[in-house]
Amino acid sequence: MECFYFPDINRQSAMLTISGDDTKHLKANHIDKENVMLTNGSGLSAVALAERTGKNEFTLHITEYLSDYGEEKPYIALALGILGSRDRFEFALEKAVELGVNEFFPLITAHTERNTTNHSRLLAKAIAAMIQSKRSRLPVINSPLNLESLLSQSSDFGRIILADPEGETPCKTGHNGKYLILTGPEGGFSNEELMQINSTSNLMKWRLGGTRLRAETAAIVAIGFVSNFA
User: Fold this and answer.
1) Domain housing 50
2) According to the model, what pLDDT value does residue 176 have?
3) Measured distance CA(190)–CA(194) in Å, rounded
C-alpha cells in the first residue's frame, strides 16, 4: 500500500478530492480503486480508497484512521556535524528518518567545512523518507546551531549518546525518555568541544564497532543501537 503526504487531513475528513499537481504521485504509481495510506505528518495517518475520477482528479474515501502509525518510542534526536558533502549529509538525514528519529540538528563545529544548510531541501528529504517508511510524524528539522547552543538544551534529554571509539559497548540504558545522539563531522569533534560534551551529566559514550566509521555511518549505527537498547 503506497503512502502519500496530505498535511491537511484530520479526523473530520471523510472524503478528499484532489486535482492538478497534487495528483502527480498517484498517477505516477498508477493508483485507481486501490487502498492507499495518507499521513499528515502530525501523528495522524489514514487508509483511503483512491479512485480516479478524471484525467487530473482523484477522490479519496477515508475508511480508517490510525494514530501514531509507524512511530516507536523512544524519542530520538540526532545532532550531526554538517558534512562537506551535501549528498552524504542528506543521506544521513533520510536514513535517520526511516529509522524513527524525531528531531534533527545540523551541527556547526570547529571542523565543519560549511555552516549553512538548505532547509527546504532537508525538509523535502525528510518528507520523502517519512512517506517511504510509512510514518505518521514528520521529524523536526532544526536550523544549524553550534555545540554550545545545543548543549544548553541538554537537560531536555535523559541521555546523550556520543559516538566514541574509546567508549563502552552499547548496552541497556535504563532510560525510556528522550535521547540525543551526537556525531561529529569529518575529523570529529575538537578537544575543546569534547571537553564541553564531557561536562554534561547525562552522557554515555558508545563504541560503535571495530572499524573507523564515516560520520553518516556512525549516526545510522548509533540510532539502531539506541532503538534496540532504550
Assistant:
1) 3-67
2) 67
3) 6
